[in-house]
Design goal:
By secondary structure, the protein is mostly helical. The protein is 54% helix and 12% strand.
């Protein structure tokens, strides 16, 4: 499972960068109508928290509490941090 990102471009000109995993989870394809952009963003945010947790623990030994704290400081929710740990 790669971690590269894919940029979605919408008809209104806006764009959104997603992890490949998010695109696969929602079985996205060109021209697809999204039912819930909020659900896509939430899923991508959860995956981002997990990837951040992996980067942190691969760089240094940290406690669970410290790891959760770092994830929250980097912008994740407390729930996402707990799930990622």
């Amino acid at each position: 499972m790669g971690t590269y990102r894919i940029t979605l471009r919408f008809e209104d000109g806006t764009s959104l960068r997603l992890y490949r995993q998010t695109v696969e989870d929602f079985r996205m394809y060109p021209g697809m109508e999204l039912e819930s952009l909020d659900a896509v963003r939430e899923s991508n945010s959860r995956y981002s928290a997990k990837m951040r947790a992996v980067r942190i623990i691969s760089a240094s030994a940290v406690s669970k509490r410290d790891l959760e704290s770092r994830l929250v400081r980097k912008g994740g929710s407390e729930e996402q941090a707990k799930e990622a740990v």
